[in-house]
């Protein structure tokens, strides 16, 4: 039996983190599309990783629960990297909430039930969660602690309240960081940690969809006027992910790390600040 690292969503960011933290462990690559998991598995296997694949629909409890069973049959789950999601240009609001918000809560709950002592989890959220206006204290608590299967019934998430895909995405990503704070308490009782990374524009296929989609001009302006003046790379996110999941991050849990080249700073205090 091996220590097992589970990667949910086999895009560039999740796989880049897995490469940093999975040496000597068994990697389970899970994706909605088997072809995506297989492609990522081929890349990792070619450089010496022990890999298997699975399919998962994170918006389905039965599917996530089955993935937990697959992983625990292979050994102790010592790491979970959740990088599955859809962007504002890829899906309608209800699908974004089902995948990015409810699906993340499911992964946190189901894997939080089995994570090994000394293990760690990492949820990939987004800079978008940092640009959503302040919620009420009651809304924060609701997003953090409402039982998973009741989340999508919250009044603030109903179709008449969430009509725009970007708003849905921002709510989902804010909920991810809030949910991780609450789950860190529960994971801690098992001797495990969990954190969130909120990347900005990182060059991946999903980001290319955004840069060429209906909001592409705005995203390109965002990069130009940010302090860094460029997009990031999956390896830059992975460097922070490795810190958070490794022994040097042993005192870090329930935290969110914004990695966006200063876009959010510029949005509040620089050239990207909305004009009144």
Task: Please describe the topology of this protein.
Elements: E1 2-8, H1 12-21, E2 26-31, H2 34-46, E3 50-55, H3 61-72, E4 75-82, H4 93-112, E5 120-124, H5 128-131, H6 137-145, H7 165-188, E6 193-199, H8 205-211, H9 216-224, H10 234-245, E7 256-259, H11 263-269
Parallel strand pairs: 1-2, 1-4, 2-3, 4-5, 5-6, 6-7
Helix pairs in contact: 1-10, 3-4, 4-7, 6-7
Core attributes:
single chain, 16% strand, Rossmann fold, 276 residues, alpha/beta
What does this structure look like?
This protein has 276 residues and is of the alpha/beta class. The chain has one domain: 3-Layer(aba) Sandwich (Rossmann fold), CATH 3.40.50. Helices cover 46% and strands 16% of the residues. The chain has helices spanning 12-21, 34-46, 61-72, 93-112, 128-131, 137-145, 165-188, 205-211, 216-224, 234-245, 263-269, and strands spanning 2-8, 26-31, 50-55, 75-82, 120-124, 193-199, 256-259. It has a 7-stranded parallel beta sheet with strand order 3-2-1-4-5-6-7, with helices on both faces. Helix 1 links the parallel strand 1 and strand 2. Helix 3 runs parallel beside helix 4 and helix 4 packs parallel to helix 7 (165-188). The longest helix has 24 residues, at 165-188. It is globular and about 60 Å long. The mean pLDDT is 96.
Care to give the gist of this entry?
The protein is 46% helix and 16% strand. It is an alpha/beta fold and 276 residues long.
Major pleated sheet: 7 strands, parallel
End-to-end Cα distance: 60 Å
Q: Could you state the order of secondary-structure elements as H and E?
A: EHEHEHEHEHHHEHHHEH
Biggest β-sheet: strands ordered side by side in the sheet: 3-2-1-4-5-6-7
Residue-averaged pLDDT: 96
> What is the tally of beta strands?
7
CATH architecture: 3-Layer(aba) Sandwich
CATH class: Alpha Beta
Low-confidence stretches: none
Q: What percent of the residues sit in helical stretches (DSSP H or I)?
A: 40-55%
3D shape: globular
Number of domains: 1
Indicate the CATH topology: Rossmann fold
- For this structure, what is the CATH homologous superfamily? NAD(P)-binding Rossmann-like Domain
Radius of gyration over C-alpha positions, nearest whole angstrom: 18 Å
Q: What's the multimeric state?
A: single chain
């Amino acid at each position: 039996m091996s220590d097992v690292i589970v990667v949910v969503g086999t895009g560039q960011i999740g796989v880049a983190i897995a490469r940093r933290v999975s040496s000597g462990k068994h990697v389970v690559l899970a994706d909605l599309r088997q072809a995506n998991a297989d492609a990522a598995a081929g890349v990792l296997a070619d450089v010496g990783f022990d890999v298997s694949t699975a399919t998962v629909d994170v918006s389905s409890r039965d599917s996530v629960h089955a993935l937990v069973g697959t992983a625990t049959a292979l050994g102790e789950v010592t790491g979970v990297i959740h990088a599955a999601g859809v962007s504002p240009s890829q899906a309608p609001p209800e699908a974004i909430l089902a995948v990015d918000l409810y699906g993340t809560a499911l992964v946190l709950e189901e894997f939080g039930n089995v994570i090994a002592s000394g293990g760690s989890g990492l949820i990939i959220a987004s800079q978008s969660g940092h640009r959503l206006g302040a919620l009420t204290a009651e809304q924060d608590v609701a997003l953090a602690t409402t039982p998973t299967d009741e989340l999508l019934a919250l009044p603030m998430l109903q179709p008449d309240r969430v009509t725009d895909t970007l708003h849905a995405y921002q709510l989902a990503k804010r909920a991810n960081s809030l949910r991780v704070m609450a789950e860190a308490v529960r994971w801690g009782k098992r001797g495990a940690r969990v954190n969130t990374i909120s990347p900005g524009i990182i060059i991946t296929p999903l980001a290319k969809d955004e840069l060429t989609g209906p909001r592409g001009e705005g995203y390109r302006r965002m990069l130009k006027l940010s302090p860094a003046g460029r997009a990031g790379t999956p390896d830059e996110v992975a460097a922070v992910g490795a810190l958070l999941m490794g022994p040097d991050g042993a005192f870090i849990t329930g935290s969110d790390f914004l990695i966006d080249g200063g876009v959010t700073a510029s949005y509040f205090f620089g050239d990207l600040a909305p004009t009144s």
